[in-house]
Write a structure and sequence with these properties.
The structure is a single chain. It is elongated and about 70 Å long. It folds into 2 domains: about 70 residues, Transcription elongation factor, GreA/GreB, N-terminal domain (Helix Hairpins, Orthogonal Bundle), CATH 1.10.287.180; about 80 residues, Transcription elongation factor, GreA/GreB, C-terminal domain (Chitinase A, domain 3), CATH 3.10.50. It is of the alpha/beta class. A 5-stranded mixed sheet has the order 5-4-3-7-6. It has 3 helices and 7 strands; from the N terminus they run βααββββαββ.
Amino acid sequence: MPSYITPAGFARIVAEYEHLLKVERPMVTAEVQYAASLGDRSENAEYIYGKKRLRGIDGRLRYLKNRLESIEVVDPASVVGDVVRFSATVTLEDPDGLEKVVRVVGEDEIDLPSGAISYKSPLGEALIGRAEGDEVTIQAPGGTRSFVISEVRYL
């Protein structure tokens, strides 16, 4: 199964990759070169720390490159209907009548305070394929929770 992402999430990954590659890495490389020019590298904290930062940046660049090669962008504007699919914004109502709005997004876009949940999360998996009016039950850490899907939108 491919990994999905919204256009906004894809843009964030590309921006981070470009920033690390074109700004951070050259800056840290210059700092390491300067620190190396000062002499004894074995006791040069700036050199040692700079090399560690470079390894971290290079590792993150590899990770982001692999993600960019393995994800599929899904534009919410291209999806229609009242069935929950990736990129849907879903309004849920609990048994007490309280509403909760969630967006079903990719793993790289999770932001629980804003309601962005992964399509691979328990709630995301329970929502996929369901329609307005359907009841969804999930096993949460605090016990079983039920919701009714009151609205499905694609923005």
